[in-house]
Design a protein that fits this description.
MbnB/TglH/ChrH, alpha/beta, 18 helices, two-stranded antiparallel ribbon
């Protein structure tokens, strides 16, 4: 397995530790169709200290080949008040990165916890200078924990509290990631993007461009969710994103393991993967043909014309390098200081969670948002809330947010290790374990893409 990408972007899967997921992807592995793997690191930390041996084998194999990409779900990188559990999360990330090599590590944009919440789901927040500083500080700490050489980044949200909030998300992400220079990664979740396109009647092309798709080579990744991939995502959004983001590194299909309940589900996962692979390969072939034609045309140009083009290109590289060096110089100094906090935003986030865990109607929630003093500094943001979005946020918060002492969160994480014995009994034991954990499926499969500059490759 080679790390080079001469054939275009890699096409991979997000690895799930469920035995039914293993059976579903095994034919793809046997045919050497899976180029890369995404792994949700912190999910593994909570598996009772034991990862199935087959999972460890795949992580090690793809990690050695430079084709392993990390993702997190529990860091909450824009929680405005620093939490002990975030420090614990970084310690676990550091250990994970000492054990295996990742091409990138990303997290969900938004805040999950505040005011003593133990766990939650990613939620939007107002785009303010303080919020940007929080995001930059948290990603820099994540970058250092990952070893200082692994790019880190954020994934766009499906939920926005209204049209203005949706419009702000792209500039918000860009404002945070540009401060990390070439170590900042944008994870564009295609299914999340699709949700906003439908909910707010957006143009697909404008939505992708607004999310800071960088033709100059910012690392990039795309995503969709936990059932079959909606056809319009593969047939429309994927080709559009391939065209608008010319330096793609890897496309990843993600589907939660517990949603594969039958052989028919497994077959549809394989079909989705092969369709995605076909779209990516066809696009890469067309690009190579276009590049060959362009090279032939360039051969007819004068030597002076070529020299001018090369000089302009080098000037652009030098300017980018200087900016990145300047930014990195303040990175370590900032990390030696206490974590940046925005107390006003922290009060907003804590009050938001305390309010939305209550069983109130969307109209009652909107009234409280306009009446409670913690929300007063952000009234312009709150005034843009759509009643339907408030209803969805209420459902999500009441389902996922739990309050407990921070120490309890850290105690749930145990050191992952392979199960070295009882390989034959492993699947039977896992079937029993995961049968208890199976929940309701989601509303769409996942399709992820990373983009890197030529220098990164």
């Amino acid at each position: 397995m080679e790390a080079e990408q001469a054939g275009g972007p890699w096409v991979g899967v997000s690895l799930m530790p469920h035995p039914q997921y293993r059976r579903a992807i095994q034919p793809l592995l046997d045919q050497h169709l899976i180029d890369a793997i995404e792994w949700s690191c912190d999910i593994g930390w909570g598996m009772g200290g034991r990862l199935p041996a087959w999972v460890v084998d795949l992580l090690d194999q793809f990690g050695r080949a430079g084709r392993l990409f990390g993702h997190g779900v529990m860091y909450s990188p824009t929680s405005a008040i620093w939490e002990r559990r975030q420090a614990a999360w970084l310690r676990w990330l550091e250990r994970e990165c000492e054990e295996r090599r990742f091409g990138h590590i990303t997290e969900h944009f938004g805040f999950m916890t505040a005011g003593g919440a133990l766990e939650g789901c990613p939620l939007p927040l107002p785009f303010t200078p303080g919020a940007v500083e929080v995001g930059v500080d948290r990603l820099r700490r994540m970058h250092r924990a990952a070893g200082g050489a692994t790019p880190v980044g954020l994934e766009n949200l499906a939920l926005a509290m209204g049209p203005a909030d949706a419009a702000d998300q792209g500039p918000f992400l860009a404002a945070v990631l540009e401060r990390l220079g070439d170590q900042g990664v944008l994870l564009l979740d295609l299914h999340n993007l699709h949700c906003q396109i439908v909910n707010f009647s957006l143009s697909a092309q404008d939505a992708i461009k607004r999310l800071a798709c960088d033709p100059e080579g910012r690392p990039f990744r795309r995503d969709t969710h936990d059932g079959d991939v909606p056809p319009e995502i593969i047939d429309e959004l994927l080709p559009l994103a391939l065209r608008l983001c010319p330096n793609l590194r890897v496309v990843v299909l993600e589907r939660l393991g517990e949603t594969i309940r039958s052989e028919a589900d497994a077959e549809r996962l394989r079909e989705d993967f092969c369709r995605i692979r076909s779209v990516v390969r066809d696009f890469a072939s067309a690009q190579r043909a276009q590049s060959t034609a362009g090279a032939a045309a360039a051969a007819d140009e004068s030597a002076g014309g070529r020299a001018t083009a090369e000089a302009d290109h080098h000037n652009n590289i030098n300017a980018t390098t200087a900016t990145d060096d300047d930014d990195g110089g303040g990175d370590e100094a900032a990390l030696e200081s206490p974590p940046f906090e925005d107390e006003e935003l922290g009060r907003y986030q804590a009050a938001f969670l305390r309010l939305f865990v209550r069983d109130l109607s969307p109209e009652q929630l909107l009234h409280q948002l306009r009446a409670q003093p913690e929300f007063a500094p952000f009234q312009k943001y709150v005034e843009g809330f759509d009643v339907r979005c408030v209803e969805v946020a209420s459902v999500l918060v009441r389902k996922w947010v739990r309050f407990a002492r921070p120490k309890a969160y850290e105690s749930r994480w145990r050191r992952p290790r392979p199960d070295s014995e009882g390989e034959e009994d492993e699947e039977e034991e896992e079937e029993e374990e995961y049968a208890e954990e199976d929940g309701e499926g989601g509303d769409g499969g996942e399709c992820d893409v990373y983009e890197s500059s030529e220098a990164d490759e």
